[in-house]
Amino acid sequence: MSHEASMTSQDARGPTVDDGEGETTGVPRALAAERLAAAILRIHAGISVAETLEITATEARDLLGAHAAVTRLQAPGGERLESVSLSPKFASLDAVRDAGAAQLDVNLQTHDGTPLGTLTVADPAEGAFRRGDEAVLRQLAQTAAIALEKARLVKVAQDAARMRDEVLAIVSHDLRSPLNTIAMSAGLLRETVGKKELGLVERIERGVKRMNRMISDLLDASCIDEGKLAVVARPENASTIVREAVDNAEPIAEARGCKVVCGAIDEATFVLADRQRMLQVLSNVIGNAIRFSPASGDIVVDVGRNGAAAWFSVTDHGPGIEAEHLGRLFDRYYKADLESREGAGLGLFIARGIVEAQGGGIRVESERGRGTSVRFSVPLVKRAG
């Protein structure tokens, strides 16, 4: 004899509701409510449409003490799916139909009444359904409809993200090929042109670098969204990273009429970090500081230790940022200066993704008219060797 067949009538039946005359049958009312609440939580935990249908059928059969339950998704113009939950009494859904078992049906529908499908339970252990069973089944159906809509939206978002990544991969490949040709051609021209034309060649090379940087930023942003950003952390000297970042930024700063300088630097600070990614963060942050610094202004880069972390800071003396913008600076594509046409608004978004992927944090301190300081941390590590 199966475990289910050996259960008493009361054990086999799940929650019920008041019968309309002040009396309740089946398990105690408090326990019935507890089981129903637990079933609702499990249904909401479903991620995909198929998983949600499966959980709903299982919970409906268990709660009503039935031998069979079926959830059917039959949305007009949409996918048609079915999930069946059976006790050992039946080998298939056809066997349930052939037995002529009593069944109870409720509709699955959205909040605005759009039909999604049905939820059916059959062959109750006691031989007949109780008055409260339909109310329980309707509550499960309502929960399932909400969960199915959520699962559908998740799938739409996943499909959109996958399509975006595919487009980015194609575009990045197709753009980089002609950009590489332009870069090589500019390199050949550099060796043959005179001083008068050299400035034009340099403008071409800067344009190529900027385009390549934008492509990389878009790909990195996509990887951050997917949690797939590649970071290889090793023990690194923080002061060496800062000095390299400052050296790299000098030509850009000079063209803007400002300077990037090293401030307070702890030479003995070693961090567990990805060197190239750290340079990318500093490049993004310093680049922002240069963009908004006044001519002849200094951008100061500091590094030091605080507890178990190393703190890097980049400070400018620009116009500062209004308080209303501070909470959104790390959002994708967000720009505090809406009139600026420079950059795609991904620099700080990517910087945060890189820093957090290395176990650190990042923040902005600014006051209108008093400049801006971007501070970020990564874990300290003992000196290599």
Question: What percentage of the residues does DSSP assign to strands (E)?
Answer: 15-25%
Distance between the termini: 69 Å
- Shape designation: elongated
| Unreliable stretches | 1-13, 16-25
Order of strands across the biggest sheet?
A: 6-8-9-11-10
How large is the radius of gyration? 32 Å
Structural account:
- The protein is an alpha+beta fold.
- It contains ten helices and eleven strands.
- The chain has helices at residues 9-12, 29-44, 49-64, 93-99, 133-190, 195-226, 238-256, 275-292, 323-326, 347-357; strands spanning 66-74, 80-86, 103-109, 115-124, 234-237, 259-265, 270-273, 298-306, 309-316, 362-366, 372-379.
- Helix 2 runs antiparallel to helix 3, helix 6 packs across helix 10 (347-357) and helix 7 (238-256) runs parallel beside helix 8.
- It is elongated, with a radius of gyration of 32 Å.
- The N and C termini lie far apart (69 Å).
- The model is unreliable at 1-13 and 16-25 (pLDDT under 50).
Sum this structure up briefly.
By secondary structure, this protein is of the alpha+beta class. The chain has helices at 9-12, 29-44, 49-64, 93-99, 133-190, 195-226, 238-256, 275-292, 323-326, 347-357, and strands spanning 66-74, 80-86, 103-109, 115-124, 234-237, 259-265, 270-273, 298-306, 309-316, 362-366, 372-379. The protein is built from 10 helices and 11 strands.
